[in-house]
Design a protein that fits this description.
Length: about 375
């Protein structure tokens, strides 16, 4: 056999790689493009050069147009993505991490299901149809939707997405109409606002309850024909408001607006996401963050309006409310107005020669609420 000597060492030769021409993604500045064109035109010495320059200009113009078209597509795509992200952020419900769900996800959209890890979890929300053995080994506080906790089974409504903004009176020809058959919720609300009221035959599932809450939260007057079993989804307060509407009086703008205000207040007080989270924590025996106190500052120079001012403020359902009433001028009774139960009232008196701005400043300084 032949003796093999040591292998000769040398440079390794790899597979040949073809050079890929550089293709700019965006067009250079106009000054650079103009310089290239002038240099090309200055290099023309013969008819052949002129023909080559013409082809070069046509090809370059096509490249510039193509890059601009691609740039426009990228810009439009980024704009669509930004709008979509903004829209999703506006419609998404921010469910806190201290809550987990067991059962149907439609009862609390956006909530995470309970799994092995429970770090930071304070309460477990259980859907009504969840069997008892599915939660037998859970050591955390458990709140079951429905009669057991008093929490309605309908999913909460997102107040950032559905609110009374844009509520307008309707024309004399408006009538009570069924729920608009549109896929996007905002489109349904927009179409329903043009009707005198929206008729719902009955509410017997989560989807129907969610659509009703979207309408009432947006100020649309809702009339339910058959209220059987509606308390299960909406609770007693809102169920009574949507089933006791007097249709014959809806043509009166004052009555229609009063019904709208009552229904949307009940929706936001009991079915908005912040309210639902407070209900869950309260049912689990967990501490609930109190609502901020509110001070209403009113200055008036009309003695005949005193009782009406106090009565209107007393009608508000905020749990911590204060009225600072500044009597500006003469003619007011010597005795201060009497505040109804639950309303803190502070009465200040100013002479007619005091500047109105000073009256409001002094009254605001006496306000003790976190919000004025």
């Amino acid at each position: 056999p032949k003796a093999r000597g040591p292998k000769a060492k040398g440079p390794r030769v790899g597979p040949a790689r073809l050079a890929v021409p550089f293709k700019p993604v965006e067009n250079p500045p106009v000054v650079v493009l103009a310089g290239k064109v002038f240099r090309k035109l200055g290099s023309i010495r013969s008819p052949r050069d002129l023909s080559a320059a013409a082809r070069w200009v046509v090809r370059g113009f096509g490249n510039v147009t193509r890059r601009e078209r691609l740039k426009l597509k990228r810009r439009l795509k980024r704009r669509r993505e930004a709008r979509r992200a903004t829209r999703l952020q506006a419609v998404a419900m921010d469910i806190p991490a201290w809550i987990r769900l067991v059962g149907g996800a439609d009862h609390l959209p956006g909530a995470s299901q309970l799994k092995n890890k429970s770090d930071g979890v304070e309460v477990v929300l259980v859907a009504p149809d969840t069997p008892a053995d599915a939660i037998a080994e859970i050591e955390l506080p458990v709140v079951r939707l429905g009669k057991a906790s008093g929490i309605p089974e309908a999913a909460p409504v997102n107040p950032r997405r559905f609110n009374p903004a844009g509520f307008l009176p309707v024309g004399s020809a408006a009538e009570v109409e069924p729920v608009p058959d549109l896929s996007w919720p905002e489109d349904r609300v927009r179409a329903a606002r043009a009707a005198l009221a929206t008729r719902v035959e009955r509410v017997d599932d989560l989807r129907g309850a969610a659509r009703l809450l979207e309408l009432t939260a947006s100020g649309v007057v809702v009339v339910v024909d058959d209220p059987t079993g509606i308390d299960r989804w909406l609770g007693g307060r809102l169920a009574g408001l949507v089933s006791d509407v007097e249709e014959a009086r809806l043509a009166d703008p004052t009555y229609r607006e009063s019904v709208s205000v009552a229904q949307r207040r009940a929706t936001h007080v009991e079915h908005a996401l912040p309210a639902r989270l407070r209900q869950i924590r309260r049912a689990a025996g967990l501490p609930v963050q109190r609502l901020p106190s509110v001070s209403v500052v009113v200055s008036t120079n009309r003695p005949e309006m005193l009782d009406r001012v106090v009565a209107n403020v007393a009608l508000q359902d905020h749990p911590s409310l204060e009225l600072v009433l500044a009597l500006h001028g003469d003619g007011f009774p010597a005795a201060d107005p009497i505040a109804p139960d639950g309303l803190a009232l502070t009465v200040l008196r100013f002479g007619p020669d005091v500047v109105f701005g000073h009256v409001l400043s002094e009254a605001s300084a006496r306000a003790g609420g976190e919000w004025v």
